[in-house]
Amino acid sequence: MSSVDLHTQYSYQVMVPEAFAIVVAPTDNSRSYGIFRISDPSGMSVLKECQEKGSQFHSHKETVNGSPIYEHCTHVYTNSNLRFEIFDRR
Q: Which GO terms describe its biological process (predicted)?
């Protein structure tokens, strides 16, 4: 997730702790999307202390315990029988 993605997700997770992000990468040939959440409390603490603007790309400091700032959501169930299409309308 980019720094912009992280700050957007942070604002959702502060309000709704169970929130997760679906990140679509149309140019990534290895996979078309990923489901992530900010690690709590480690990643949430890093983003809470970040003084950079969320609308600009930037790097973040390491978490205190060395864990990743965000993680793949392994607890989210995806149903491959449901139809889901993405349209790029640019």
A: protein K63-linked deubiquitination
